[in-house]
Write a structure and sequence with these properties.
One of its GO terms (cellular component) is ATP-binding cassette (ABC) transporter complex, substrate-binding subunit-containing. Belongs to the ABC transporter superfamily. It comes from Aurantimonas manganoxydans (strain ATCC BAA-1229 / DSM 21871 / SI85-9A1). InterPro entries: AAA+_ATPase, ABC_transporter-like_ATP-bd, ABC_transporter-like_CS, ABC_transpr_MalK/UgpC-like, Mo/tungstate-bd_C_term_dom, NA-bd_OB-fold, P-loop_NTPase, Transp-assoc_OB_typ2. With 356 residues, the chain is an alpha+beta fold. It folds into two domains: 223 residues, P-loop containing nucleotide triphosphate hydrolases (Rossmann fold, 3-Layer(aba) Sandwich), CATH 3.40.50; 107 residues, Beta Barrel (OB fold (Dihydrolipoamide Acetyltransferase, E2P)), CATH 2.40.50. Helices cover 24% and strands 34% of the residues. The protein contains eight helices and 20 strands. Helix 2 crosses helix 3 and helix 2 runs parallel beside helix 4. The longest helix has 18 residues. It binds adenosine-5'-diphosphate (ADP) and magnesium ion (MG). The site of adenosine-5'-diphosphate has 11 residues, from strand 2 and helix 1.
């Protein structure tokens, strides 16, 4: 089922929550909407499911505008952000509630609750009340409740927030398989770009109420269309520096790049991902830039190394294999291939042709 947002605008007083947002959601895709807090993710979802009306714009479902349709008539399942279960109802009653409201027949409701509980491995919880559940179990029930509807589009608003990482990993895997099983479109919001990269087939980057880039997840990661997209997606955060063109060279923070075709004096933003900032083996400082190690995060198989290079901070992510990470306050040789540097217009932030 095709889904398109066209020019969706929503204001709350002076706050512009959504600013003529446009997005084509690929049918049967796992599409992640990733943007910082307050970028408009929840507002977009509330408008999609019909809890709020946009000030302008259309939502086309299979080509038909559904903006005026009552929520119950929209074929969309919804897991709201921070959903709290009703404390005095059992898990089964909590799950059934939206269908009860929509006056589904009792046996139909029971059959769906059983089936969805089975898929999400919560059958053993159905008779319990929320106070008897762990945090992870509650979240699983909230997700199950949203997936109960016989829909072709499911909307999940930051459903894993606050869970410990083992539980998150498990639920992430389950949600991906669930999408395949239901063969539905999943639209999933998160502000965590690592979670977004893990989950997404397609990724839409949201910033200040607009989709600034969308596409297949690896394309968005490797070919950011603007500096903000590079800034928002990826962990650890990308290195970004304002700079300018002089004597045929882009100089931005510690980065240097041939200015091929760029006007002398023009403002540029240059960026590089931490995995492209390579470090020489310990003691080998020949023919490279020298940097001081200001912090090391050892993640086992890799390390994030924070550096000071001529007064500029620079983050490097290196695979460790069988070597130890560099030591705090030591000096390391840094290698940057200019081909790995991404260049953006200093004013608009748009990617400049010719870099990478
Ligand atoms: P996100 O889900 O990405 O964190 P939201 O959609 O919740 O973003 O919020 C987008 C913007 O709209 C924020 O500035 C928020 O304060 C504002 N906003 C959202 N809902 C309301 C509301 N009901 N009343 C006033 N402002 C709101
Ligand atoms: Mg939100």
């Amino acid at each position: 089922m095709s889904l398109q947002f066209q020019g969706i605008t929503k204001r709350y007083g002076k706050t512009v929550a959504l600013d003529a947002l446009t997005l084509d959601v690929a049918p049967q895709s796992f599409t992640v909407l990733c943007g910082p807090p307050q970028s408009g993710k929840s507002t977009l979802f509330r408008i999609l499911v019909g809890l709020e009306k946009p000030d302008a714009g259309q939502i086309l479902l299979s080509g038909r505008d559904i903006v005026g349709d009552p929520p119950a008539e929209r074929p969309i399942g919804y897991v709201p952000q921070n959903f709290a279960l009703y404390p005095h109802q059992t898990v089964a009653q909590n799950m059934a509630y939206p269908l009860t409201l929509a006056r589904f027949p009792k046996d139909e409701i029971a059959a769906r609750v059983d089936r969805t509980a089975g898929i999400l491995s919560i059958t053993h919880l159905l008779a319990k009340t929320p106070d008897q559940l762990s945090g992870g179990e509650k979240q699983r029930v909230a997700v199950a409740r949203g997936l109960l509807k016989d829909a072709q589009i499911f909307v999940l608003d930051d459903p894993l927030v606050g869970l410990d990482y083992k539980l998150r990993e498990r639920l992430m895997d389950e949600l991906k398989s669930l999408r395949e099983e239901l063969n539905a479109t999943f639209l999933y919001a998160t502000s965590d770009s690592l979670e977004a990269l893990t989950m997404a087939q397609r990724l839409a980057v949201l910033d200040q109420g607009r989709v600034i880039q969308d596409g297949e997840v690896t394309a968005v990661y490797h070919q950011p269309s603007q500096a903000r997209s590079l800034d928002l997606i990826g962990f650890p955060n990308a290195n970004l520096y304002p700079g300018s063109v002089a004597d045929g060279t882009v100089t931005a923070g510690p980065l240097r790049h041939p200015a091929a075709g760029l006007e002398e004096g023009s403002a540029v933003i240059a960026g590089i991902r931490p995995e492209h900032v390579r470090l020489n083996p310990e003691g080998d400082t020949a023919g490279t830039m020298q940097a001081r190690v200001t912090l090391v995060e050892n993640l086992g198989g890799e390390a994030v190394v924070y550096l000071d290079l001529d007064g500029h901070s620079l983050t490097s992510a290196i695979p460790l294999f069988d070597r130890a990470p560099p030591e705090f306050d030591s000096t390391v040789g840094v290698r940057i291939d200019p081909a790995d540097i991404l260049l953006f217009d200093g004013t608009s932030g748009q990617r400049l042709a010719g870099s990478r």
